Amino acid sequence: QKKRRAATARRQHLKSAMLQLAASEIEKEAAAKEVEKQNYLAEHCPPLSLPGSMQELQDLCKKLHAKIESVDEERYDTEVKLQKTVKELEDLSQKLFDLRGKFKRPPLRRVRMSADAMLRALLGSKHKVCMDLRANLKQVKKEDTEKEKDLRDVGDWRKNIEEKSGMEGRKKMFEAGE
Q1: DSSP 125-165
Q2: Confidence grade of residue 151 (pLDDT, cut at 50, 70, 90)
Q3: What are the domain boundaries of the chain?
Q4: Alpha-carbon torsion angle 16, 22, 23, 26, nearest 10
Q5: Residue pair 152/170 in contact by the 8 Å Cβ criterion
Q6: Could you cite one Gene Ontology molecular function of this protein (predicted)?
Q7: Closest CA to 99 of 91, 108, 111, 107
Q8: 130-134 long-range contacts, CB within 8 A, separation 24+
Q9: For the whole model, what pTM was predicted?
Q10: What whole-number distance in Å separates Cα of residue 132 and Cα of residue 115?
Q11: Nearest 10 degrees: CA dihedral of 62, 64, 65, 69?
Q12: Each residue of 53-83: pLDDT tens digit?
């Protein structure tokens, strides 16, 4: 029991020490990033000094506008280069698939289409014949069986029950039986 308690206490102590060490490392990294950011801004963005006269202010605005245009041109150029490289990568990967002989099959969707619409899609304006598939089917006559004749002759079942109910119905049944 004492050994277990000592082992768990030691494990928790090591865990807390590791967490403290990790927290201090994270703080150091954040501070280093902040210093790096400050150095970059000091190097690339000098502090702004506003001139006193109107002419100097207009010149400053013109310089800033020219700088903005040059940065936008660089950004546009890098975007175009990126698009070209992405396109080249896609072309090369397609060539690689072609060389390997393995093709990605696109997922196909089921489309309900009549025979006429299918022929029209395949043949275009050449298709003029209307294909009625049911027109070529044979007509089959249904043979009347005796049960169906009996059922037709019986007619409405309520009538038969009314006729057979009572003494008259029994008399008719008795006479029909003879």
Answers
A1: GG------GGGGSPP-PPPPPHHHHHHHHH--HHHHHHHHS
A2: low
A3: 1-47, 53-102
A4: -170
A5: no
A6: actin binding
A7: 91
A8: none
A9: 0.33
A10: 8
A11: 140
A12: 888 889 989 998 999 999 999 999 999 999 9
CB of 122 closer than 8 Å to CB of 138 = no
- Both tokens of 32, joined, read 């280093």
Could you give the CA distance from residue 16 to residue 13 in angstroms, rounded to a whole number? Answer: 5
So what's the pLDDT on residue 165?
Answer: 62
Which amino acid does the sequence have at 134?
R
Residue with tokens 């990790």: 22
Per the CB < 8 A criterion, the answer to whether 154 and 160 are in contact is yes
- Cβ(71)–Cβ(64) below 8 Å: no
Distance CA 30, CA 22 (A): 12
111 within 8 A of 123, measured Cβ to Cβ: no
Nearest to 49 by CA among 37, 59, 36, 40: 59
Token pair for 111? 């489309």
Residue matched to tokens 């003494």 = 167
Amino acid at 149: K
Cα–Cα distance, 48 to 149 (Å, whole number): 108
Joined together, the tokens standing for residue 70 give 């040059």
Instruction: Round to whole Å and give the CA distance between 13 and 5.
Output: 12
